[in-house]
Specification:
This protein is of the alpha+beta class and about 850 residues long. Helix content is about 45%, strand content about 10%. The longest helix has about 35 residues.
Amino acid sequence: MERLSDPTRPMIQTPKPSPWDYQSISGYYDEMLITPERARPHWQTLLDALKELGPDDFGRRWEEGRRILQANGVTYNAYGQQDGLDRPWDLDAVPFVIAADDWQKIEAAVVQRATLLNAMLVDLYGAQDLLHRGILPPELVYAHPGFLRACHSPELAQPTYLHLYAADLVRNPDGKWWVIGDRTQTPSGSGYALENRIVLSRMLPDLFQECRVRRLNLYFQSVREMLYGAARTHRDNPRIVLWTPGPYNETYFEHAYLARYLGISLVEGGDLTIRDNAVFLKTLSGLLPVDVILRRLDDAYCDPLELRHDSTLGVPGLVQAVRAGNVAVVNSLGSGLLDTPSVMAFLPIVCRHLLGEELKLPSVATWWCGQQEQLQYVLEHLDRLVIKPAMVSLRNPPHFPTRLSKESRGELIARMKAQPHLFLGQEQVKLATAPVWKENKFAPRHWMLRVYACAAQGSYRVMPGGLTRVSADTATSEVSMQRGGGSKDTWVIADGPLPAYVPMRPPSRPVDVNRASFDLPSRIADNLFWLGRYVQRVETGVRVMRTALNRFSEEWGLTLTPNVIAAITVLKRIGMIKSDLQPEEESLEALQDELLAAIFDPKRPGSLVQDVERVHRNAWLVRDRVSKDSWNVLNQLDQAFSQPPLHEPMEVNGALEVLDQAIVNLMAFTGLVIESMTRSQGWRFLDLGRRLEWAILEVDRLRDCLVEPSAHEPELLGLLLEIADSSMTYRSRYFTSTQPSLVLDLLLIDEANPRSVAYQLSELNEHIEKLPYRPSEARRTTESRLSLAALTTVRLADIDELTQVDAKGRRPKLDAMLSKLLKDLPDMSHALTRSYLTYAVPFRSLQLTWTGAPS
């Protein structure tokens, strides 16, 4: 491979072709190359290291990086697309490198810009001097949907409105940095930037020290300190929550990721309520005060009482609680006013007025059409500009006049003349390019860099890096994650030795010992409860299918043996395969295909893969409540069933391998729950779901297989023991053939057997007795009575009576008992839901909630 030359060496005129050959795009600034044969100095160390690795080794490392992303379940929701939900996060293998001197200028400019925008918010929601002096036109404020009149209060003005800020930066063809957008409402993407860094650091660990890449942890330490410092009440130990619109939001992964990383609770609007002008978290044990809300919800949706009345995501009365000083909201309500490009046209004069200095980093040239002179300029230079809405919250897409038809162009001009204050013109930027790794070689893509700042000690701390986004291809300069774009890790090169690593920790304050775990909203308890149920449903399904497939694979030539007939009988009775299929020689192939479809067909109702998807979805909803190891185990389970090869025809042996690995994953998850999960109410509801589903499925299976004895009952009994993972226990106790009474004793009433119905009922009863006490109920609750009655019924059962066969060839007493249990156990689930899991939830449509995330 021909090396990219050192800047001090002569230029190479005829580089040798190799996978590393990289051709920049003529007319665009390229981040890596000065000329086609000469790399920029701050890229040279990285390029030398990649040359030493070679394309093959680098490609193998990138496969490991992709595996880490997949294992961590990093996703992004794209709106309005068929496969947009839980789309895998697109990370490029090649980092984006920024020189130390470039970064010094960026850092200073971002601090200045954040300070300026914060001062503007203080003024506009306070004295409004900018409006009184005519520095800002009133139309940009009073006509802006982002100006929240309910939050305007000069008496209650606060020093910090903008706790978190992000700036979108680009380079022009001359290499100069421009600001193309400000994010002042709910700046998103910092969590993805952190995840990108984690993946690249594991993929290229040796290069970080060699390239002197600055670390990100001090920025997130500042974010945590800022959140603690924002608390107005309970300052010694404030309760901090991250407020998410919900799992359909485009960056929900980031919400859960940051909540876990920062050590705060992830909540939705339905989890919060207002009492006496204070915010409380609704938990199973009562209301707990909330001191700081890190919101990821747009301003207008936060309070349907005083802001947007049709919002189902907000908390009625939140604005009044903020006015009363009982809760801090980060960023402050109303900060979205400046989250619009129209403000850029006035920033130079506002900066001189408020800060007494010039802007250190210019904005892309912007003309607001609300002024006649600017409108005329925009109309005369339409072909050189992009037309955007003046208020981002209007959600209108940008227009490129050169791409419009004559008719559409005329309609746009007419709308601009009719309502000029709603439009602005902005210079079209020829976005610079940077290399990406595509098809085992470098290729150029347009990029945009989002840089983050956090309020700290009267100023702002800037993340030494950021989220670099790249275009989907070279044919478009549009950089959007919603439209197929990707991302990069951003490496800021230090100008000296790296400081020692400082682990992230909360502010050091004396706090009393507290072993309570009360902050469990009923929404989370409900998701954990159903996670437990679906995990057990999958485990049971896997064991049933594995037992049946083993019977097929063990019989040479698929001959019709008693074991095969017994397996078919069980599968029919429990509804896993169609009951009209006949166990005859000529239909065994069809039975095998039917069984494989029941496992792997995602479109088949009740298939095993559908239950695995439900496990994954419920685990996703409680991502911040389960350990990283638990998530990885369940994510591996989902990947095993959802990979493309499983949708193709596969043999029994291949299916058995998948099922065997599924058992390992499920047992690993169960072990993590038992050994690692704090015995809080969250653990209790997770285990309640497992035990309840276990009991229901086992009782149902016993009734289907034992109430009506068949000629192949010995084989059926063996199957039941194997499905319940109790064969070894049975053999260690009884050295005779399988008998109904002995099997029933082991699987139904033996509390020493952790796989029996009695054991599950005993655990259920213990859990229910330890649920949060409700003083209003002096008597036993419905769920308590049902669990005690079910346990007593099993404990008092007479096996000899249950196994008696009447003249009709049935076991009526066994049928009656098991049928009653199958009624009482679902009733117990309904009672638990009514008592603990009923909560006020917003309408959950399949429409995704827009929040201005990294678009």
